């Protein structure tokens, strides 16, 4: 009995002590909040930039260090992420950990090359890497982007990206996606990553959301602009979508990830003005794919709800059904036109689509092999896509009628 | 070391037993001569040395016999003796008819003494037992029998409010140190002629009476038999309180999980009786011992049933949270901080990391330090004289925590964690359960230190496995939830009173149905 007891204690001790190696105190770790990846000077080398949060700035009053910067930015040139992480240790006193990594920024240069899929593919093997990290493609090198990104409101870098990413759900300017989706779409489907820059690229004014990052007319304020998206295919960047196209591509998905978006349309009653509408979806977009015929027939039905919260032409829509119908029609026509041109662009320039329509199409096949043989990407290029918007007006804001300035003017 | 442990657990002291045999009371009948009898009592009570035994000699005028009233000072009420024993004897008029000397003892017992509790006894052993329980003994010259008169007059405090099981709404009387008063408190709750109160004696040298209460039409006869057998098996010279009895009745005295509980509320004892439990009462113990018990007995409070359905259940949910907090909070903190930092929101993680930067100890030590301080504070809070008590409790905790943070001994978040844990442990109603969680908490902290969440999960699994396997007087600890048996489902939450029509079948009640069925399980 006693011998058994000692044996039991021995087994328990081995079991218990097995976990000790994993244990690490918080203060001995350096938490990376942002990683930047760039093409190195030599082939097969990457410049990895770590932005490490400084816990002593802006976290708790009792441990505030006043003169330290909120984050430490280190750039290391190495063959991959893991060796860069190790090399960075040569200058950093704390052990680098990715457990709170939220954002990965990739320079456009690297993203367009072949090396990127290798770098990011091998990085995900690391168990510390979180798959919910958001992928952002920066127009300039990621290192420059990280250095230039000094937002006024958010001192701590992780907070800035967290709020920014939350914002996307309400504006739709950038796609809501993360590394996990990136790794799901490795077979040729298109993946949209957020597109950002700190540079300014003046193109003059366009309609509200037709900008790409850097083009938004902005004076002063924070240096970073995030709007539009980078199209990735098979781990490689192949093009960009502007803000409007990005928004539409979110709407055309079966399950829209964006809560609301505000956009403008030409006012149906007064062509001098445009009208701003808040759009959201009450039901899921309906997608029907007929793979039996050639070309493939895709029918998409997008239900949208519209709220009129600003009406710069000061036209009164509330009293007349005709006027409301005109507004609905304008929205419908404009959205359908924009969607059609997006589809046309995708069909002409790329093979594949970012709307997850392939998932609907796949249902028509018994086995995955059959679907792979079908070659969805090529079939989509020639597909007959019919997009229909179903518009309903929810409200005209808190005050039903616009103020009567116009009548006064006309009266005079 | 192992020898020491063996000795400790076997409880051997190495001393031979049976040292008090010379003081045993001889079981011999009385003599006819009054002086011989008196002398025997004097010897037994070591008369001149020990002033406890009081004697009052008198001449019964009607029959012209000498008599002696004996009683123990402090145990009996001398006023009662004077008025209800001695006075009637002295005032006794000789009967006009023929004297029936043969039946003098019966005559006196039935027709003279005005007190209600009296009994004829034939031997010394019985007489001494009566004496020490407060009775007076009337010895008459020329008679081989004596009369024991119930004149017990122990000091009692009056029925007060409960101090442990406090309720806002509901009855506010608590048990006192007198078994008789306690029984009357229970009888007031359960007015049923089938409420049986059996009296047993424990303690070979200084016998104490223990009352076994149960409802004869509900309680499982085997259970009652089992409890009574356990009591009769107890072989100790003296048992002073029920708490001692509690440990002697238990099958697993070393276990952290209790298998009996005490309550100081007569209403609770009453409700346990009506569910088929056995209630033990003893003089000198201001509470009732309940057997058997389940986890639910420990987790429920009296107030759950007094408050309306929603309010009572809300309290239960809070208490369940408190139970988990008390058990797991420090362990989870430790596991998260040292093994799984990705689980905390980044802001909080950075704040903890920043405040930990200046703390010289590893998190485990920091945690144990504060936890130990809190336990000391709690222990001290009970012992400290009342006027200082509240000061020590609140100010001590706050100032100590604040100072420890400022001295960089502990991080501020840990103070919050320990404070919530401590507070939660006060929300657990039963003392046994509360202490159990406090001890188990350290086990969880240790396993979290060794293996993080995996350790916590493993320990929890082991704990649950053990808890579901143990039984208290044949009733599984988590019954009727696991193993599942029909009941009114008064478990984590309670149904409305109208639906509580079925007694839990895990108690094997003779009569399971309380009222006309309405919802719940069918037996």
UniProtKB/TrEMBL annotation, chain A:
Domain of life from the UniProt record: Bacteria
Organism: Bhargavaea beijingensis
Source lineage: Bacteria, Bacillati, Bacillota, Bacilli, Bacillales
UniProt domain Spore germination GerAC-like C-terminal: residue ranges: 228-397
Bilayer topology: Lipid-anchor
Locations listed in the record: Membrane
Residue span(s) of domain Spore germination protein N-terminal: 23-189
Biological process (GO), any one: spore germination
Protein name: Ger(X)C family spore germination protein
GO CC list: membrane
UniProtKB/TrEMBL annotation, chain B:
Biological-process GO terms, alphabetical: spore germination
Keyword annotations of the record: Membrane, Transmembrane, Transmembrane helix
Keyword Transmembrane helix among UniProt keywords: yes
One GO location term (cellular component): membrane
Residues passing through the membrane, by range: 317-339, 384-403, 409-428, 440-467
InterPro entries, alphabetized: Spore_Ger, UPF0353/GerABKA_families
Family: Belongs to the GerABKA family.
PANTHER family hit by this protein: LEUCINE ZIPPER PROTEIN 4, SPORE GERMINATION PROTEIN
Protein name per the record: Spore germination protein
Source species: Bhargavaea beijingensis
């Amino acid at each position: 009995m006693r011998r058994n007891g000692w044996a039991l204690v021995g087994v328990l001790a081995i079991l218990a002590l097995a976990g000790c190696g994993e244990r690490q105190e918080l203060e001995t770790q350096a938490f990376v909040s942002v990683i930047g990846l760039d093409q190195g000077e030599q082939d097969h080398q990457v410049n990895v930039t770590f932005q490490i949060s400084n816990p002593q700035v802006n976290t708790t009053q009792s441990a505030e260090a006043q003169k330290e910067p909120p984050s430490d930015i280190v750039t290391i040139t190495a063959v991959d992420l893991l060796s860069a992480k190790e090399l960075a240790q040569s200058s950093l006193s704390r052990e680098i950990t990715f457990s709170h990594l939220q954002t990965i920024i990739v320079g456009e240069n690297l993203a367009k090359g072949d090396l990127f899929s290798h770098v990011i593919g091998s990085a995900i093997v690391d168990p510390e890497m979180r798959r919910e990290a958001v992928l952002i493609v920066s127009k300039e090198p990621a290192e420059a982007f990280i250095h230039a990104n000094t937002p006024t409101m958010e001192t701590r870098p992780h907070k800035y990206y967290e709020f920014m990413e939350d914002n996307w759900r309400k504006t739709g300017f950038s796609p809501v996606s993360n590394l996990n989706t990136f790794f799901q779409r490795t077979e040729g489907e298109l993946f949209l990553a957020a597109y950002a820059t700190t540079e300014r690229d003046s193109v003059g004014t366009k309609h509200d959301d037709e900008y790409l990052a850097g083009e938004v007319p902005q004076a002063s304020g924070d240096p970073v602009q995030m709007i539009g998206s980078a199209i990735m295919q098979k781990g490689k960047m192949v093009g960009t979508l502007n803000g409007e196209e990005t928004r539409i591509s979110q709407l055309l998905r079966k399950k829209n990830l964006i809560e609301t978006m505000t956009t403008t349309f030409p006012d149906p009653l007064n062509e001098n003005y445009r009208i701003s509408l808040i759009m959201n979806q009450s039901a899921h977009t309906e997608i029907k794919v007929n793979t039996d015929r050639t070309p493939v027939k895709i029918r998409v039905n997008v239900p949208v709800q519209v709220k009129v919260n600003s009406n710069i032409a000061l036209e009164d829509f509330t009293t007349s059904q005709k006027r409301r119908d005109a507004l609905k029609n304008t929205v419908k026509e404009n959205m359908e036109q924009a969607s059609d041109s997006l589809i046309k662009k995708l069909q002409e320039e790329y093979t594949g689509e970012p709307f997850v329509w392939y998932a609907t199409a796949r249902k028509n096949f018994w086995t995955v092999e059959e679907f792979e043989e079908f070659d969805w990407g090529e079939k989509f290029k020639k597909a007959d896509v019919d997009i229909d918007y179903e518009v309903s007006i929810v409200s005209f804001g808190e005050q039903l009628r616009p103020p009567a300035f116009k009548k006064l003017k006309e009266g005079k | 070391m192992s020898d020491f442990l063996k000795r400790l657990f076997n409880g051997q002291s190495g001393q031979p037993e049976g040292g008090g045999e010379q003081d045993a009371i001889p079981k011999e009948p009385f003599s006819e001569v009054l002086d011989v009898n008196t002398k025997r009592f004097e010897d037994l009570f070591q008369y001149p040395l020990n002033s406890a035994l009081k004697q009052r000699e008198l001449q019964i005028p009607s029959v012209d016999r000498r008599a002696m009233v004996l009683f123990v000072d402090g145990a009996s009420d001398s006023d009662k003796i004077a008025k209800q024993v001695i006075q009637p004897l002295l005032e006794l008029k000789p009967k006009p008819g023929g004297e029936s000397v043969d039946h003098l003892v019966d005559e006196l017992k039935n027709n003279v003494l005005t007190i209600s509790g009296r009994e004829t006894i034939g031997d010394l052993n019985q007489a001494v037992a009566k004496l020490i329980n407060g009775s007076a003994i009337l010895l008459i010259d020329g008679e081989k029998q004596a009369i024991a008169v119930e004149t017990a007059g122990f000091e009692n405090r009056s029925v007060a409010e409960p101090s442990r099981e406090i309720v806002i709404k509901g009855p506010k009387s608590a048990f006192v140190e007198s078994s008789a008063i306690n029984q009357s408190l229970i009888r007031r709750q359960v007015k049923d002629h089938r409420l049986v109160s059996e009296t047993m004696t424990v303690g070979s040298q200084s016998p104490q009476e223990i009352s076994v209460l149960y409802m004869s039409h509900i309680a499982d006869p085997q259970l009652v038999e089992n409890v009574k057998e356990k009591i009769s098996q107890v072989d100790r010279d003296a048992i002073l309180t029920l708490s001692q009895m509690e440990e002697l009745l238990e099958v697993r005295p070393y276990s952290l999980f209790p298998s009996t509980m005490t309550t100081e509320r007569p209403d609770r004892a009453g409700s346990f009786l009506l569910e088929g439990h056995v209630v033990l009462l003893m003089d000198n113990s201001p509470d009732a011992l309940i057997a058997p018990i389940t986890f639910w007995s420990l987790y429920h409070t009296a107030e759950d049933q007094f408050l309306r359905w929603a309010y009572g259940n809300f309290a239960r949910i809070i208490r369940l949270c408190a139970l988990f907090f008390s058990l797991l909070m420090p362990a989870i903190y430790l596991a998260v901080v040292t093994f799984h930092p990705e689980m905390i929101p980044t802001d909080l993680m950075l704040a903890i990391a920043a405040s930990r930067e200046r703390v010289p100890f590893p998190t485990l030590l920091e945690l144990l330090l504060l936890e130990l301080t809190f336990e000391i504070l709690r222990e001290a809070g009970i012992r400290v004289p009342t006027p200082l008590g509240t000061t020590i409790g609140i100010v001590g905790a706050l100032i100590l925590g604040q100072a420890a943070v400022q001295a960089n001994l502990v991080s501020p978040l840990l103070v919050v964690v320990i404070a919530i844990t401590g507070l939660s442990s006060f929300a657990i109603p039963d003392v046994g359960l509360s202490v159990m969680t406090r001890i188990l908490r350290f086990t969880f902290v240790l396993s979290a230190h060794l293996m993080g969440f995996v350790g916590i999960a493993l320990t929890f699994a082991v704990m649950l496995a053990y808890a579901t396997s143990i039984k208290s007087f044949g009733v599984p600890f988590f019954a009727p939830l696991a193993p599942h048996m029909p009941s009114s489902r008064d478990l984590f939450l309670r149904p409305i009173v109208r639906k509580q029509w079925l007694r839990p079948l895990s108690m094997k009640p003779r009569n399971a149905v309380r009222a006309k069925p309405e919802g719940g399980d069918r037996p």
